[in-house]
């Protein structure tokens, strides 16, 4: 028997997050380039991100052909464009302070997949890369990451929006993430759950 899915949040009914979703509007244009393997990953945060910020654009793919429409759009826009990625030559977002209408590109996938996506898409190097000034570890502790500066895509978007404008209310993003983490922990055996105690 297939699981019942909530028609509103698209999570299984037993993990419904509707009560924890508070929609917000933003002035920046957020575009997520998502690795195909992440689309149906239960712990992926991009679906959650799009529930809180419905205007987020998600483009699934790996190669320039997959992103052809996006590349065309970015070529013709007059807005500033930034890739949020901690490359060696990236600048700190706090120092650059992008405009409130700038386009922010995020790559969603494992570190290995994101690195591969950057390698396969040299057109991304046409835009300045920015990294975040992290003063606290990721709260998304139910998914393993090889680096201490790892963030979920939702967290990266939240911190980017706050760096651009301190008045941006990013609390709904963190509230939704915490709710999802709590739901995931509920379904884990007690022994496994202890590994993720905050």
Automatic annotation (TrEMBL):
Name of the protein: tRNA-uridine aminocarboxypropyltransferase
Keyword Transmembrane helix: no
Domain of life: Bacteria
Pfam families listed in its UniProt record: DTW (PF03942)
Protein family: Belongs to the TDD superfamily. DTWD2 family.
Enzyme's top EC category: transferase
InterPro entries for the chain: DTW, DTWD2/TAPT
Organism this protein belongs to: Shewanella surugensis
DTW domain: residues covered: 2-189
Keyword annotations of the record: S-adenosyl-L-methionine, Transferase, tRNA processing
Enzyme Commission number: 2.5.1.25
